[in-house]
């Protein structure tokens, strides 16, 4: 069952239950701003696929915003994946031999010996290359660095196989506003280093603002599957 079907089924189930109990469901989900859409269109069914989930909570743990989107793997990440698997063009440097891409070798930013398990958030809203996110993106537009918003390694990383036999990984990190508000979070990216300069981006997504006041938190969960969906 895909994510859209799951959301629709959930809404339908609540509607039936609420009707049976004489309740109204108007506003039930709008208060939580539950959103689901595809940022890049339908998957071809092959390759690296999956989606991003966002949960925002107040300091008391109350969930006040939830989103989920299709993954947006950028060109730079695709190039780096190939170079990690198949080494350099002449085979002399070995896996992870590139530290940055040369024009003759195609795009690939960042050291390839690190895992893409660093999650970042930001406040950028400007579309790049006619779309947002764009496949040519290599950084977040305005990455958060203060008040608990700085990028960091995923605090949970779970490997597994779906019932269909498709392997997947789920990575998650929670950012909590401390010492001030992080503000209107509108983007997230997955990188291969906690150092901003020169790091490689695997994926980026943008979304309507999730505003974090002091004490609020946002949990970003990136899921990737390899194979037929």
Brief rundown of the structure:
This protein is of the alpha+beta class. Helix content is 13%, strand content 33%.
Write up what this structure looks like:
- The chain contains 2 helices and 10 strands.
- The protein is α+β, with helices and mostly antiparallel strands and 229 residues long.
- It has helices at 3-20, 75-86, and strands at residues 35-37, 48-57, 63-70, 118-122, 152-153, 156-161, 167-176, 183-191, 201-212, 217-226.
- The model is unreliable at 2-46 and 96-105 (pLDDT under 50).
- The chain has a 6-stranded mixed beta sheet, covered by helices on one side.
- Helix content is 13%, strand content 33%.
- The protein has one domain.
- The chain is globular.
Q: What distinguishing features does this structure have?
A:
single chain; alpha+beta; 4-stranded antiparallel β-sheet; 10 strands; disordered N terminus
Shape: globular
Mean pLDDT: 74
Provide the β-strand percentage band.
25-35%
What is the domain tally? Answer: 1
Could you tell me the number of beta strands?
A: 10
Would you tell me the structural class of the helices and strands? alpha+beta
Strand order of the largest sheet: 1-3-2-10-7-6
Terminal CA distance: 10 Å
**What is the overall number of helices?**
2
Query: Which stretches are poorly predicted, pLDDT < 50 over at least 5 residues?
Result: 2-46, 96-105
Helical content stands at 10-25%
Radius of gyration: 19 Å
Order of helices and strands: HEEEHEEEEEEE
**Main beta-sheet strand count, sense and barrel state:** 6 strands, mixed
């Amino acid at each position: 069952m895909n994510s859209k079907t799951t959301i629709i089924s959930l809404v339908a189930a609540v509607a039936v239950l609420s009707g049976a109990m004489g309740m109204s469901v108007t506003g039930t989900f709008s208060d939580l701003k539950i959103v689901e859409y595809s940022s890049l269109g339908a998957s071809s069914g092959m390759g690296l696929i999956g989606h991003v989930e966002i949960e925002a909570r107040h300091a008391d743990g109350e969930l006040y915003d939830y989103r989920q989107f299709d993954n947006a793997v950028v060109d730079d990440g695709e190039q780096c994946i190939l170079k990690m698997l198949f080494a350099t063009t002449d085979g002399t440097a070995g896996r992870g031999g590139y530290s940055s891409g040369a024009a003759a070798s195609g795009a690939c930013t960042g050291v390839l010996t690190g895992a893409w398990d660093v999650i970042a958030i930001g406040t950028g809203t400007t579309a790049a290359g006619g779309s947002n996110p764009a496949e040519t993106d290599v950084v977040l537009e305005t990455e958060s660095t203060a008040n608990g918003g700085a990028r960091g390694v995923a605090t949970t990383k779970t490997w597994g196989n779906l019932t269909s036999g498709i392997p997947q990984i789920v990575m998650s990190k929670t950012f909590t506003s401390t010492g001030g508000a992080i503000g209107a979070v509108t983007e997230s990216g997955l990188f291969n280093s906690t150092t901003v300069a020169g790091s490689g981006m695997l994926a980026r997504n943008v979304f309507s603002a999730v505003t974090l006041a002091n004490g609020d938190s946002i949990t970003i969960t990136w899921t990737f599957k390899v194979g037929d969906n």
